[in-house]
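User: tokens in, sequence out, please.
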């Protein structure tokens, strides 16, 4: 038998800080965010990998968001870190002020562990500040810490203002330095805060080491960015998970205050562990192995704004030698989801068309194959055949209503909450939603269900309003209620067609983009509902390719 060797890969975690960044705001400091770009294997094009959180009013940000990447010894893996001053909620980076960038390879970061380099901005000749990057190999630990802390009698040194305290957790490094691993919310205007419960992977929090020293810093939040130190304490995960009790009540010590006040200084308040536990973290693959089925619905826009299907200018133009964007999007996403769909049968719905025989009624929820008793299409090719057949049967009309389709699929998800089935709705549309309030309400209602919604914008319409539905930047709300979790991913197909190029590569890039969030959305549903995977029912060799 031929010999074999393990591929020399490992998972590394990247922590990013900025120092002395350029201030582009007039009346306050910059609100920086860092965006990491990479070059996919075999490509010279930069693709966005992940964004950190935005930190308001600071020129020296320490980003709590960690970026995990798989390090391949045999690949160069170019990276580009770009810092921006965020000026709005718009996800498009062109809406924000560019501060500077730093390019390197992942190998350089891994070999150096800590890198501190100046930022480059070819449009600004002055000092752009610097970036500090710490890279650490992640342990294989699959546990997370679930914890909630409260504060009592925190010191307020202001006569006129209340305090808004928050906590920052730092793990000790081998060289004696500390790295930020988590930042809580700021409890508003109180000396007795109850910070929100949070969960954090142990491999990030303490590198999987229960006895690694943790420094916890309590500060008073200031909107100008100059947060005031209240005090510090030290602990370990092993001690934290002992839970509530005298051993988990910590005095906050402010060394400067202690020096000034001498023996009269006792402490600056104390922090108490209200609850703490370690629990196992399950992966997307764990649920697939346990038999979880992904059931995909496909919904297609048959409104008149697509154009007459007989015209070459129509988005629905039938040309089998050069498939239209609808067909290409169906193939791109459907062929990957098909691998996870057990029976390979897809219910396909249409909306926005007048129906035969009299063509007087507009339907926002009809079966594309024309058979209400058996609305399923076998495999992706069956979906495309039904789509072509439907174009010859219905009359394109309007308006563009999403809510009926979402509510239809949500009924199935509501009947299968136990974790054995998960539903994905793929919506292909060319236009602006005309029932936006009802659509928002339908999504908020569905956010507690085992359901994800993928919206692919086809054609050249203005899709700015669609971004509202994608909760990556601002959590979706309706009538004062917020979505329990982000279940919508929106992408315009035109973004993958820019500059011509290989249409097959555009299809693969679309599939990667729209499916990237599905595993995390599935895990968020399972975790929220305390659903653990069933014992493995399949062999690793029979797993479909990883969605992520």
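Assistant: Sequence out:
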């Amino acid at each position: 038998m031929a010999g074999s060797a393990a591929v020399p890969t490992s998972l590394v975690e990247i922590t990013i800080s900025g120092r002395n960044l350029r201030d582009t705001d007039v009346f306050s400091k910059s609100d920086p965010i860092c965006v990491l770009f990479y070059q996919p294997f075999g490509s010279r094009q930069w693709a966005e990998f992940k964004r950190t959180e935005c930190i308001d009013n600071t020129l020296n940000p320490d980003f709590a968001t960690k970026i995990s990447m798989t390090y391949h010894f045999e690949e160069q893996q170019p990276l580009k870190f770009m810092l921006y001053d965020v000026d709005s909620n718009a996800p498009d980076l062109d809406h924000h002020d560019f501060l500077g960038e730093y390019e390197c390879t992942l190998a350089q970061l891994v070999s150096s562990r800590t890198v501190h380099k100046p930022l480059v901005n070819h449009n600004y000749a002055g000092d752009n500040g610097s970036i500090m990057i710490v890279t650490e190999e992640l342990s294989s630990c699959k546990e997370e810490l679930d914890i909630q802390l409260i504060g009592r009698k925190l010191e307020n040194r202001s006569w006129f203002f209340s305090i808004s305290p928050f906590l920052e957790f730092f793990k000790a490094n081998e060289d004696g330095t500390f790295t930020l691993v988590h930042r809580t919310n700021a409890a508003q205007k109180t000396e007795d805060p109850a910070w929100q419960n949070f969960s954090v992977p142990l491999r990030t929090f303490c590198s999987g080491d229960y006895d690694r020293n943790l420094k916890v810093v309590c500060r008073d939040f200031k909107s100008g960015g100059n947060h005031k130190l209240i005090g510090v304490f030290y602990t370990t995960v092993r001690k934290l998970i002992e839970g509530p009790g005298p051993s988990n009540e910590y005095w906050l010590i402010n060394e400067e205050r202690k020096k000034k006040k001498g023996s009269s200084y006792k402490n600056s308040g104390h922090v108490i562990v209200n609850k703490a536990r370690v629990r196992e973290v399950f992966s997307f693959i764990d649920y697939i192995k346990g038999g979880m089925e992904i059931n995909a619905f496909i919904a297609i826009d048959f409104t008149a704004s697509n154009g007459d299907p007989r015209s070459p200018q129509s988005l629905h133009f039938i040309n089998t030698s050069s498939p239209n964007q609808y067909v290409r999007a169906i193939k791109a996403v459907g062929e990957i989801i098909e691998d996870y769909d057990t029976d390979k049968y897809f219910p396909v719905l249409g909306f926005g068309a007048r129906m035969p025989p009299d063509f007087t009624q507009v339907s926002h929820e009809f079966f594309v194959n024309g058979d209400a008793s058996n609305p399923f299409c076998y495999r992706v090719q069956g979906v495309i055949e039904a789509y072509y057949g439907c174009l010859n049967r219905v009359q394109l009309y309007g308006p563009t209503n999403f809510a009926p389709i979402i509510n239809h699929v949500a009924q199935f998800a509501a009947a299968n909450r136990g974790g054995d089935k998960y539903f994905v709705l793929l919506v292909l549309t060319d236009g602006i939603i005309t029932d936006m309030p009802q659509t928002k309400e339908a999504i908020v209602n569905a956010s507690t269900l085992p359901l994800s919604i993928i919206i692919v914008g086809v054609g050249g319409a203005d899709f700015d309003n669609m971004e509202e539905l994608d909760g990556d930047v601002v959590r979706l709300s309706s009538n004062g209620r917020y979505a329990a979790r982000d279940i919508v991913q929106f992408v315009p197909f035109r973004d993958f067609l820019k500059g011509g190029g290989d249409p097959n590569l555009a299809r693969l890039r679309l599939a990667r983009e729209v499916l990237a969030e599905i595993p995390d959305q599935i895990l968020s549903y399972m975790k929220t509902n305390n659903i653990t995977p069933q014992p493995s029912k399949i062999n690793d060799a029979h797993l479909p390719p990883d969605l992520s």
